[in-house]
Amino acid sequence: MVTGYWHMNAQHLAAGRRKRLAKLLRGDELREGVITVLKAGWSPQQIAGRMRHKGARRRACHQTIYRYVYLPERRAADALVMPSTPGE
After folding, report:
1. How many CB atoms lie within 10 A of CB 87?
2. Which of 26, 37, 65, 74 has the fewest CB atoms inside 10 Å of its own CB, making it the most exposed?
3. pLDDT for 30-61, tens place per residue?
4. With a threshold of 0.85, does the pTM exceed it?
5. How far apart are CA 77 and CA 50, in angstroms?
């Protein structure tokens, strides 16, 4: 039995994580739902909280939504602007 740290295995796993597409780029239905409520003025925290409250099968956390909103490739394709918070 061999135990311990294997650098080649760790490198392979890390490369696989980097290559994986973002959750909102993979799921069309989830992405469209998020975009719809973002345009309605909801914050990513509100969207994630509502998904969790409703018990949605496919959901995204607020960090995932922010990451999608600020992707350079996505911003060039779709001019979605985050609603500003009061006081800014």
Report:
1. 4
2. 26
3. 989 998 999 899 999 999 999 989 888 888 89
4. no
5. 27
